[in-house]
Design goal:
162 residues; Jelly Rolls; six-stranded antiparallel sheet; 15% helix; 36% strand
């Protein structure tokens, strides 16, 4: 394996970093139980990756088994216990545990044992904020979607349920 083609062609470097301090308000709330911090979106990284801090409350929540066709997804548990599904089994995962899922890999997550926080990384960067925001709107409004409406929403966001 070798390094990819250069993305920066200058000789002196530049001041271009972005610092996010912890403790700020979340960018999105999904119901009263999940807070999402947009640390780096696909747009802000030029499509290289998206990184989000996912804070789940005491009430169980999470996604059902699914896969993506255009990006990988990685999970790094910071606090609490997150059940991570690797396509074969659910594993209770704690601080420092990590799951990488390549494109096409079946996966899911949920917190079943109280509050938990994890980092979620998508590579290359996909516009996942749109998906998260649609979910938040559905939860907040109480709107009920039919099976085909859910399928359409998932497919718009490169998500295929298993």
């Amino acid at each position: 394996m070798s390094y990819p083609d250069a993305l920066y062609l200058g000789d002196k470097g530049e001041i271009s970093g972005t610092l996010h301090t912890g403790g700020g308000d979340p960018d999105l709330r999904i119901g009263g139980r999940t807070r999402v911090h947009y640390l780096a979106t696909g747009e802000s990284t030029g499509g290289q990756y998206g990184l989000y801090r996912w804070e789940m409350g005491a009430e169980p929540s999470g996604g059902e088994p699914h896969f993506h066709k255009t990006f990988s997804e990685s999970f790094f548990v910071l606090d609490g216990t997150v059940s991570l599904y690797d396509g074969e089994r659910w594993a209770p995962s704690r601080s420092g545990d990590f799951l990488f899922v390549p494109p096409g890999g079946i996966h899911a997550f949920r917190n079943e044992d109280g509050p938990a926080t994890m980092l979620v990384l998508f590579a290359p960067g996909a516009p996942r904020e749109g998906y998260f925001e649609e979910l938040a709107e559905i939860v907040t409004s109480g709107r009920r979607l039919g099976e085909q409406e859910w399928t359409d929403l998932y497919h718009r966001h490169d998500q295929y349920m298993v």
